[in-house]
Design a protein that fits this description.
Arc Repressor Mutant, subunit A; 2 domains; 0% strand; mainly alpha; 166 residues
């Protein structure tokens, strides 16, 4: 992470300051949930994701909204996983060893199909950002595009994938 000496504190320092608020936020979400989730595990996951994707964060921006969005995503992912696990315990079915591999193959083929329908620049920006972990600034420099244009391509690609119409 590049940072000027007179600029904002390092992400790690700012993250430590924000963790108590993230814990409170997740505790409130957990209280309203119908599934029992471990708040401390989720706080740790938020911190891990923040550090893993630090290059995607603009140090000039507020950290709190970014962390809250990450915390919400962690909560929703964890809750959904726990619901699926609870449902699978109740639905005992014969195990078909080929099913998980076939499902993964089907998912991969679907992803490849959707990515193939994106424009070349949308696909490139999307994979650089999500698969390679490059920041918007890095992508803009490497592709010789304005940062706003990179953000637009990224937004359009995500929207197309979410709508399944890539």
């Amino acid at each position: 992470m590049r940072e000027r000496a007179d600029g904002p504190r390092a992400l790690e320092d700012r993250l430590l300051d924000e963790l108590p608020r993230i814990r409170s936020f997740l505790r409130e979400l957990a209280r309203s949930s119908d599934v029992l989730v471990d708040v401390d595990d989720m706080v740790q996951e938020v911190a891990a994701r923040a550090l893993r994707y630090r290059r995607a964060f603009d140090v000039e921006r507020e950290l709190s909204p970014w962390l809250h969005k990450t915390a919400l995503r962690v909560f929703l992912d964890r809750r959904e996983r726990l619901r699926r696990e609870a449902a699978s315990v109740h639905d005992v079915q014969p195990v078909d060893a080929s099913t998980p591999c076939e499902a993964k193959l089907d998912d991969r083929e679907e992803i490849e199909r959707l990515l193939a329908k994106l424009s070349a620049v949308e696909r490139d920006v999307l994979t650089r950002f999500h698969a390679r972990g490059e920041s918007v600034r890095e992508i803009a420099q490497r592709l010789n595009l304005p940062e706003g244009t990179v953000k637009s391509h990224l937004h359009r690609a995500r929207r197309k994938l979410a709508e399944g119409r890539a």
